[in-house]
Amino acid sequence: MNEQQHRDQEHEEFDLSSRESQMKQAHRIEPWLGRTFTCGSCGQEHSVPLRKVVLERGAMAALPFYAQERGLSSLLLVSDGRTAEAAGRKLLELCGEAQLQARQCVLPDDEHGELAADERAVVQLLLHVTPDTQAIVAVGAGTLHDIVRFAAHRTGRAFLSVPTAPSVDGFASVGAPLIIGGFKQTIPACSPEAIFGDLEVLATAPRPMVAAGFGDMLGKYTSLADWELGRLLLDEPLCDLAADMTRQGLELCIRHTADIAAGTEEGLRKLLEGLLLSGISMLLVGHSRPASGGEHHLSHYWEMKFLQAGRRALLHGAKVGVAAVKMAALYREAASLDAEAVRASASQRLADPDYAAPDAARADIAAGYGAIAGQALAENAAELDPARRVVLQRQLAERLSSRWAAVQAVCRAVPAPERLAELLAAAGGPVTEAQLGVEPELVEESLRYAKYVRHRYTIMRLHEWL
Ligand SMILES: NC(=O)C1=CN([C@@H]2O[C@H](COP(=O)(O)OP(=O)(O)OC[C@H]3O[C@@H](n4cnc5c(N)ncnc54)[C@H](OP(=O)(O)O)[C@@H]3O)[C@@H](O)[C@H]2O)C=CC1
Ligand SMILES: O=C(CO)COP(=O)(O)O
Q: Which parts of the sequence are annotated with region: Disordered (predicted)?
């Protein structure tokens, strides 16, 4: 029996042959592992190279056996000072006991006493990847996983994951958000092939990282709504299976808010499950659209500005949670408008020469940023050649008027900002920009420019038409 047949046999209890059977499994992790199937929702072929997830106390002990089974005998275990303490050293011992050749690489902090997923960290890791290295193991949180994800992908090594905190949905994901030249961009890379979520290790994670994981999940309310807007107004492809999987992950976390807030084992398990479901949904579609919308663009903008100013980084999920409250407020404002008012402001917008050719805005952005980041933002603002932009803007104005009832339904489905604030507070995360440590001026600036962090339709882009 070859490897694929073996996996098919292992998974035969999970029927993924129809849309109905696929949608029925959207709340579970197991059915998707190692599977390739035609999606009953979007018609695309989805492939999930992630083939194993162990989520239990002592899960780390399963890693050496997995490596042996896969014939991976030479491993590079990558951590930083903190996660080497939390898990790296123990894993090294476990690998030694299993007669594997494992080396530990502890990535050094930068001048701010932290590790960023940037060019420097990637090169530092590559220096440790020797010709005999067969697998690179990320032992850490989101940043460390992205550094390893990129290096493993580019060097063709197997990528294994040991999350040390349930802080982001990036563990199972496929893209590596890296800071290159001061600009945060997501580079397509690969998912790990196995994840060992050890509940004993996760329990060592600082509480703000648990609250941050919850904040990253709350952001899915607005990222999913943004994706719906893209479908409605720009015919953007949307995979209902991926969207539903993300929603199921989100709802799982909401149902267990109290446990997550209390940091119980059940809470950590459910949070990581939710984060993994969200990661797998990105894996299905090959990009982060289900999981990342305007709230992430705001968060990335703050992150880049902090970096530029040499300030210590804030936790990703903490920023996303606060930004989601901001986006929910824009959704609420949009929901309150009637079709007539929208028609009038869209016509006004079309007639605005500055908007039709936003060169002034572009120059403004480029001036306010360092060379590379400024240029990247400006390119996203320019978006399309001017003639095509005019055609698309007319179409958008027409659709905003004729499809307003449907747009409004999407806006109304986003919970009120007060509700998101309440959930964040319950989980122990920051709720306001003041609690987070982002100045009101930066928030105001980001609400104008963060929409150019990516080529993605979001509530921020809709809002400028209202
Ligand atoms: N690929 C994707 O799709 C996604 C990627 N991300 C990215 O993830 C990054 C943020 O990751 P996040 O997890 O929030 O933060 P970091 O990975 O930066 O971790 C913050 C700090 O916590 C430390 N830490 C982790 N676990 C423990 C522990 N058990 N005990 C003590 N300290 C610990 C980390 O160490 P260490 O540095 O060793 O980890 C680090 O010093 C961002 O760059 C974001 O863009 C976010 C979502 C999705
Ligand atoms: O953080 C993410 C999902 O939570 C992914 O972010 P990007 O959209 O920048 O890749």
A: 1-21
Q: Which atom of ligand 2 is nearest to the CA of 317?
A: 4
Q: What is the pLDDT of residue 184?
A: 84
Residues whose beta carbon lies within 6 Å of some atom of ligand 1: 79-80, 82-83, 86, 114-115, 117, 140-144, 146, 164-165, 167-170, 173, 175-177, 204-206, 209, 212, 282, 288, 315-317
278 in Cβ contact with 217 (< 8 Å): yes
The alpha carbon of 167 and the centre of ligand 1 are apart by a number of angstroms equal to 6
Q: Is the pLDDT of residue 384 over 80?
A: no
ipTM above 0.85, yes or no: yes
Q: What is the mean pLDDT of the chain?
A: 90
Please compute the mean of the pLDDT values over residues 387-392 and round it to a whole number: 68
Give the Å distance between the CA of 100 and the centre of ligand 1: 27
**Structural domains of the chain, ranges and CATH numbers in brackets:** 60-205 (3.40.50.1970), 294-463 (no CATH)
If you average pLDDT over residues 125-149, what whole number do you get?
A: 98
Give the residue, by CA position, lying nearest to ligand 1 atom 36.
140
For residue 161, the cross-strand partners are 138, 195
Q: Dump the DSSP string for 243-299.
A: HHHHHHHHHHHHHTHHHHHHT-HHHHHHHHHHHHHHHHHHHHHTSSTTT-SHHHHHH
